[in-house]
Each structure stands twice: as C-alpha cells, then as structure tokens.
Design goal:
alpha+beta; Pantoate--beta-alanine Ligase, Chain: A,domain 2; four-stranded antiparallel beta sheet; 4 strands; 34% helix; rod-shaped
C-alpha cells in the first residue's frame, strides 16, 4: 500500500551543490598559490638585493682612505658586476688639519630573470695624506 501525499526526502548534497563547492575551493586554492608564489619571488628579490648591499659594504671596508688620485675600480663577483668611482668633494671648511674628502660611489648590477637591476650607494671617505712630500728633513 502506497501512502499518497507523503514524499520521500533524500539526505545529502545535490550535484549542483557539489559543483558550487568545488568551484569555490578551486578559486580559493588558486588565490592561495598565487599569494605564496608572489611571496617566494619577493624573498628571492630581497636576497639578491641584500647580496648587492653586502658586496658594496665589503668593497667599502677594503679602504679607510682614498689616494689623492682617487679610486676607480671595477670587477665581477658572485653574479654581480660592480664599479667604484670617486671624485674630490668640496667642503666649506679648509685648513691644514681638515682632511680633504672624496665622494665614493659604489654601483652594483645584476641580472634578475630578464630584468637588469642596479644598486648605487654613495659615501664620503677622507683623502690619504701623502707623508714626506715637500717636508723639510
């Protein structure tokens, strides 16, 4: 005997509900992977830039003064191309006890994928005094 007016209700999800859930999950995972991929790229860029700063600081630590002729040098190290240039730096203060200064520029370049990156740092270094020139004996 079949009871009329009583419809059997199935429990569970319909096919449409499952498809919507999978689409939401796929979109969420795509956004998550893009965010983590961007973070990994940013870490790589920061590491290369930190290496460039470390190279420039190492070059600076090689000298505590500059000769009167200046400092001109270039080279390659660890995937970085570097260049050092100096020029006399004028100051309003002059005198026998005031050291002359040189403005020293460090330029470090490297390739990052297809893009060329450059880091430039500038500092002042005193000129080395030449001992014994013109001094009475």
């Amino acid at each position: 005997m079949i009871k009329s007016g009583h419809v059997a209700r199935q429990s569970g999800f319909s096919l449409l509900e499952l498809l919507v859930a999978f689409v939401i999950m796929a979109i969420s995972l795509t956004m998550l992977f893009r965010a983590s991929g961007g973070s990994a790229r940013a870490v790589g860029v920061a590491e290369r830039q930190q290496g460039a700063v470390l190279l420039a600081e190492s070059l600076l630590s090689m000298r505590d003064s500059v000769s009167p002729a200046g400092w001109q040098d270039a080279g390659n190290s660890g995937g970085y191309a570097w260049q050092v240039r100096s020029a006399p730096y004028a100051t309003p203060v002059e005198g026998p006890s005031v050291p002359k200064l040189h403005e020293v520029e460090f330029v470090v370049s490297w390739q990052e994928g297809t893009a060329a990156r450059t880091l430039a740092m500038t500092t002042l270094i005193p000129e080395r005094k030449v001992e014994g020139l013109g001094a009475p004996r």
